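Design a sequence for this backbone.
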C-alpha cells in the first residue's frame, strides 16, 4: 500500500494505492494549529493496522517562512559580510514606486555574527578561524539563546574547510547547517539567503517529522520542490527543498494526466482553498534556480511554479478607493469561508454558493453541509458597500479572482515566450474546474482537461513521482570539471543505492555575462547545447564568443512503481442526477448536474455542472464535454 498526502490550507488530501491496483481518495479538514494530527488521523483511516509507504507534501517550511514563525536563528559569516542578508541585491520590484515598503529580513542585524576567516576565490585558505574567537562566539550565541545557526563563509563553495571547522566548534548549540552543504554555489547573497532560510525552518521540520514518526510505523518520505521525493533524514537536513512540496506534486500529476490524454503541452492550473498554483510544461516540467519566497532568493532546484493568493477561501473586500479586491488574505481552514458555518467574511466559495454553483450538500460527497444563508449574508456585505445586487457582487468577486489567475498564467506563458493557445489547460484542486473554462476563454485556450481525482491530483502526483536527489558544485575557474562530476557521482551512488539514473547538467554563460543558463552536459562540446538554448531563450547566439562553466549539477533519480492509468468502458451516459438553476454567462439557467462517475465518452453540450467527490466543474454554454478512456473530463470550445 502506498499513500500520497497533500496538506493544503483548507483540506488535507489523501489518495491510497492498494496492492490490488485500486485507488481511493478522501479529504480531512486541515488544522493549522496541529497539522500533524490530521496526517496521523488520515493514515489511521487509510491503512488501519497495515503498513504503508507514505509520500507527503508538507507546508511546514513554507508556512513558517511566510508567517515569520521560524525558530530563533543566528547567521555566522565572514567578518565584514554581516550585512549581506540585509543589503540584498537592491533590485526594484516596483520600478515607479519611490517609497516602496521595506523588506523585513527574517533575522535582525543583532543575530548576524562575523568570524575572522578568509578563503580566496580559487579555494586557497588564507586565514583559519582562531580557537579563542570561536570560544567567544559560542558564548555569545549561548547568551542569545539561539535554536539554529546558519554558517555561510565567502567562497565556501570552493573550499568548505573553514565552515566545517566552525561547525565542529559550535556543536551542541542547536540545529546547524553550512552553505557548502545546502547551496554549494557562488553569489554570496543567494547562498546566504538559502542557507539562512534552511536554518530558520529546519528545526520545525525536524520536530514535525519526529511527531509523525512517533505517531505511526509507516515509512514516510517527503515531496521536494524539484518534483521528486526524499527521505525524512534528507528533509531534516535540507528543509529548504520542501518549500513548494505540495504544488510540485500537482505539476507531476497534471503532466501525467495530460500525456495520457494526448496533450504533452499543458498549463497546470491548481486552485485550492488558499491559493492558486500555475505552471507550464512543454513535454517536461520546467525548472528554475531563481525562485523567490516572500522576496528572498532560494537557490535550489525547483519546478517553475507561480503562486497567487486566489483560492476558494480568498477574502473579498472593498478597498479605500471603493474598488473590489479578492485575496491574497484567506479564511483558510479556520474559520474558513462563511458558508462553512464559522466564518463571516465573504470569499470566492461563498460567491459560488450564492450563484448556485455549489449546493449545500455538494462538498466532499455530501459529507460537509454548507450554510447557504450565511454565505448570502457575507456577500451582501460587499453588495451594500458597492450599492449593487447580491448576484452582481458575487459575479464581481469571481471576475476579480479570475483576473488574478489569468495574470498568473500569462506570467508563466506569454511573458516567457509561449502562446497559451498552444497548450491545454489542466484544471485541478477543489475549485479549479469552477473557473477553468472562463479563464481559458479569456486566454484563447480551446481545450480544458479535468483529470480523474482532480481534487487530490497533487497527492496522486506524489505517488507518480520518483525519488530524486540533486547535487551541485561551483566550478568557475576550475580546470578539471570532469573530476568534479565524478566526485558528485560517487556521493550520489553512496546516498541513493539501488542503481539510480544519473543525469549531468551545467550552468553556463558567455564570459562577462551576469546570469547563466542550465543545459544538459556534453563533455565533448559543452558549448553546443548552451548556444542552442541561448538562441531559444534570447533570440541570438554567438558561437565565436568564449563561455564560462559556472556550476555543475547532477540529478540522481531512482524510479518507483507507479499507479496504473485508470481505463473506463463506454457505458451510455446516464441522466443528470438533478438539475438546478445556476448563474452562468450572465444569466440564471436551468442547468443539468452530472455525477462524474456516471459520465461516458458521449459528447454533451453545456451549460452543465459535473460533480465529483473532491471537485466541481462548471461547463459554460456552447462548450462541449465528454470523458475519455483515462477518466479525464475533456472540455472543448
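Sequence:
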Amino acid at each position: 500500500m502506498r499513500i500520497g498526502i497533500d496538506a493544503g490550507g483548507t483540506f488535507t488530501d489523501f489518495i491510497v494505492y492498494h496492492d490490488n491496483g485500486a485507488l481511493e481518495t478522501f479529504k480531512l479538514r486541515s488544522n493549522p494549529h496541529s497539522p500533524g494530527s490530521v496526517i496521523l488521523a488520515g493514515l489511521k483511516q487509510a491503512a488501519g493496522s497495515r503498513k504503508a509507504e507514505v509520500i507527503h507534501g508538507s507546508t511546514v517550511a513554507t508556512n513558517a517562512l511566510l508567517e515569520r514563525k521560524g525558530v530563533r536563528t543566528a547567521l555566522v559569516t565572514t567578518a565584514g559580510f554581516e550585512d549581506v542578508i540585509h543589503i540584498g541585491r537592491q533590485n526594484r520590484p516596483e520600478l515607479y514606486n519611490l517609497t516602496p515598503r521595506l523588506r523585513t529580513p527574517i533575522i535582525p542585524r543583532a543575530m548576524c555574527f562575523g568570524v575572522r576567516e578568509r578563503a580566496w576565490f580559487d579555494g586557497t585558505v588564507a586565514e583559519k578561524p582562531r580557537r579563542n574567537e570561536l570560544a567567544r562566539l559560542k558564548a555569545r550565541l549561548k547568551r542569545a539563546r539561539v535554536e539554529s545557526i546558519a554558517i555561510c563563509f565567502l567562497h565556501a563553495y570552493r573550499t568548505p574547510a573553514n565552515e566545517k571547522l566552525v561547525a565542529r566548534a559550535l556543536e551542541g548549540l542547536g540545529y546547524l547547517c553550512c552553505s557548502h552543504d545546502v547551496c554549494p554555489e557562488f553569489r554570496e547573497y543567494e547562498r546566504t539567503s538559502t542557507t539562512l532560510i534552511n536554518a530558520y525552518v529546519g528545526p520545525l521540520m525536524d520536530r514535525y517529522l519526529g511527531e509523525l514518526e512517533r505517531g505511526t510505523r509507516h515509512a514516510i518520505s517527503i515531496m521536494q520542490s524539484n518534483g521528486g521525493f526524499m527521505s525524512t533524514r534528507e528533509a531534516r537536513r535540507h528543509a529548504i527543498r520542501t518549500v513548494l512540496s505540495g504544488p510540485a506534486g500537482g505539476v507531476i500529476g497534471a503532466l501525467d494526466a495530460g500525456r495520457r490524454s494526448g496533450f504533452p503541452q499543458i498549463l497546470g492550473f491548481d486552485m485550492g482553498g488558499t491559493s492558486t498554483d500555475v505552471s507550464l510544461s512543454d513535454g517536461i516540467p520546467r525548472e528554475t534556480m531563481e525562485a523567490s519566497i516572500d522576496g528572498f532568493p532560494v537557490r535550489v532546484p525547483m519546478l517553475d511554479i507561480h503562486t497567487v493568493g486566489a483560492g476558494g477561501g480568498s477574502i473579498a473586500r472593498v478597498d479605500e478607493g471603493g474598488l473590489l479586491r479578492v485575496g491574497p488574505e484567506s479564511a483558510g481552514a479556520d474559520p474558513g469561508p462563511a458558508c462553512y458555518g464559522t466564518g463571516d467574511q465573504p470569499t470566492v466559495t461563498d460567491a459560488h454558493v450564492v450563484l448556485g454553483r455549489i449546493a449545500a450538500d455538494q462538498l466532499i460527497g455530501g459529507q460537509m453541509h454548507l450554510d447557504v444563508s450565511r454565505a448570502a449574508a457575507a456577500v451582501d456585505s460587499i453588495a451594500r458597500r458597492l450599492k449593487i445586487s447580491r448576484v452582481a457582487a458575487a459575479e464581481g468577486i469571481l471576475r476579480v479572482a479570475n483576473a488574478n489567475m489569468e495574470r498568473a498564467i500569462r506570467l508563466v506563458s506569454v511573458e516567457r515566450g509561449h502562446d497559451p493557445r498552444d497548450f491545454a489547460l489542466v484544471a485541478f484542486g477543489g475549485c479549479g474546474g469552477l473557473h477553468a473554462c472562463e479563464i481559458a476563454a479569456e486566454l484563447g485556450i480551446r481545450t480544458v482537461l479535468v483529470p480523474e481525482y482532480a481534487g487530490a491530483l497533487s497527492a496522486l502526483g506524489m505517488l507518480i513521482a520518483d525519488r530524486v536527489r540533486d547535487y551541485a558544485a561551483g566550478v568557475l575557474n576550475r580546470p578539471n570539471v570532469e573530476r568534479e562530476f565524478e566526485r558528485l557521482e560517487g556521493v550520489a551512488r553512496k546516498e541513493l543505492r539501488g542503481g539510480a539514473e544519473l543525469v549531468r547538467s551545467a550552468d553556463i554563460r558567455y564570459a562577462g555575462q551576469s546570469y547563466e543558463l542550465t543545459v544538459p552536459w556534453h563533455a565533448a562540446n559543452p558549448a553546443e547545447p548552451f548556444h542552442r538554448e541561448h538562441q531559444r531563450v534570447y533570440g541570438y547566439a554567438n558561437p565565436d564568443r568564449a563561455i564560462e562553466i559556472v556550476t555543475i549539477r547532477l540529478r540522481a533519480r531512482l524510479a518507483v512503481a507507479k499507479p496504473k492509468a485508470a481505463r473506463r468502458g463506454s457505458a451510455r451516459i446516464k441522466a443528470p442526477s438533478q438539475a438546478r438553476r445556476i448563474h452562468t454567462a450572465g444569466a440564471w439557467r436551468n442547468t443539468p448536474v452530472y455525477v462524474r462517475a456516471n459520465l461516458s465518452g458521449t459528447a454533451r453540450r453545456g451549460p452543465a455542472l459535473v460533480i465529483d467527490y473532491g471537485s466541481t466543474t462548471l461547463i459554460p454554454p456552447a462548450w462541449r464535454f465528454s470523458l475519455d478512456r483515462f477518466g479525464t473530463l475533456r472540455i472543448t470550445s
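Confidence is low (pLDDT under 50) at residues 567-574.
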